[in-house]
Amino acid sequence: MQRYDERNADIRYWVGGVLRHRDEPGISPFDSVVQGGDAVWEGLRLYEGRIFGLDAHLDRLRRSATALGFAGIPSPGEVTAAVVATLRANDMRDGVHIRLTLTRGVKVTSGMDPRLNRSGCTLIVLAEHKPPVYDTGGLRLVTSSVRRPGPDVLDPKIHHNNLLNSILAKMEATVASADDALMLDGRGFVAETNATHLFAVHGGALSTPHTVACPEGITRATVLHLADGAGIPATVRDLSLTEMYTADEVFCTGTMGEIAGVTQIDGRAIGDGAVGPVTRRVADLYVTHARANGTPVL
């Protein structure tokens, strides 16, 4: 469970071009994100005034909004300017997580029909002091009964705000005293966790599931790129739950938590029950790369 950081007590967030104190409401009850979760989002991480993967995240935000038919999508430059203004208002430079939300906008009256949206998108920028959220000593996962949908239900290539699927899985994990939930796709293969992508290590080689029932993760793609450059074999393929149980190591990837080892799945110890050497190497490679290759914004 994440912990509240006192440094965030008086942060200011951006909504619709205005900076507001965290306790000041700024979202209209007619906004589509309130009416139906009709929004897309991205998570960014700030390292010493640089945002890692900024262009890739903004590209995915735009693709998701375009797929949903949003009108008046702000340009990457406009989104970046809002991010910079928010960071400066909060005097933030390092160890910061930024949540971008782009909604379809405000409706003229409540209802599902997108034709009721006539004023363009609403952009929300929430920046918090937030170090990587996972315990570096290893995570415990349990397999959820909740399945990740494929593109025939809701295409995971749309990075949308409807997270009930993930929330229900997280609730199951919490009841089972686990850190997160491992989720399967509709065919019974591993998809991801409720919040992160998964990698298994067998004989020093990495394997990660296809993005059939999970988003095309930017941290995941970075790990595959870094592994190739470091001479670590990596494949993208279907992975069964049994292959996760019997892996030498398992780790998860994501912007908010970076790289985190998994030491237990469904009560079974992974490998020797400790975070393994390949996981630690990948984590070091990733953090070094992310800190050195971000887009300067401050």
From TrEMBL:
UniProt-listed Pfam families: Aminotran_4 (PF01063)
Molecular function in Gene Ontology: transaminase activity
GO biological process: amino acid biosynthetic process; carboxylic acid biosynthetic process
Sorted UniProt keywords: Aminotransferase, Pyridoxal phosphate, Transferase
SUPFAM superfamilies per UniProt: D-aminoacid aminotransferase-like PLP-dependent enzymes
Disulfide bond in keyword set: no
Obligatory cofactor(s): pyridoxal 5'-phosphate
Family: Belongs to the class-IV pyridoxal-phosphate-dependent aminotransferase family.
Name the UniProt record assigns to this protein: Aminotransferase class IV
Organism: Phytohabitans suffuscus
